[in-house]
Amino acid sequence: MADPPALMHATQARPLDSQAIEEAKGKVKELMRESRELAAKAKEIEDAVYDLKAVNPHKRAVVDTRTPEEPMKIIEAQGQEIADALSALRASENAL
User: Fold this and answer.
1) What is the pLDDT of residues 61-71, one digit of tens each?
2) Which residues have a Cβ under 8 Å from the Cβ of 11 and sit 6 or more positions away?
């Protein structure tokens, strides 16, 4: 089967067009630069819109204004409460 005339024309070797190649390289270079600029601009916009910090900007800071002695007194009181509970358990255990 013979090739169609359009295909024969397309497959024939053509001389290289140096000027067209240089123009294409220049166009590719320009488009790559433009692409990088647009990508950078899009990233700036996205970063400005989406602040992904895991911090609530409206939360008030909680500051512990107690003196060091106050938590120690609380701990001692809790310790005493635990000791009293253990004494009551031991007393009930001995009563059984």
Assistant:
1) 889 999 999 99
2) 3
Distance CA 40, CA 34 (A): 10
Dihedral of CA atoms 87, 91, 94, 96 in degrees, nearest 10, equals: -130
pLDDT tens per residue across span 5-34: 555 555 566 677 888 899 999 999 999 999
Domain ranges of the chain: 18-95
Q: How many CB atoms lie within 10 A of CB 50?
A: 7
Listing DSSP states for the chain in one string gives: -PPPHHHHHHHS-----HHHHHHHHHHHHHHHHHHHHHHHHHHHHHHHH----S--TTPPPP-----THHHHHHHHHHHHHHHHHHHHHHHHHHH-
Gap between the Cα atoms of 44 and 37, Å rounded = 11
* Predicted TM-score of the model (pTM): 0.37
Output the pLDDT for position 17: 84
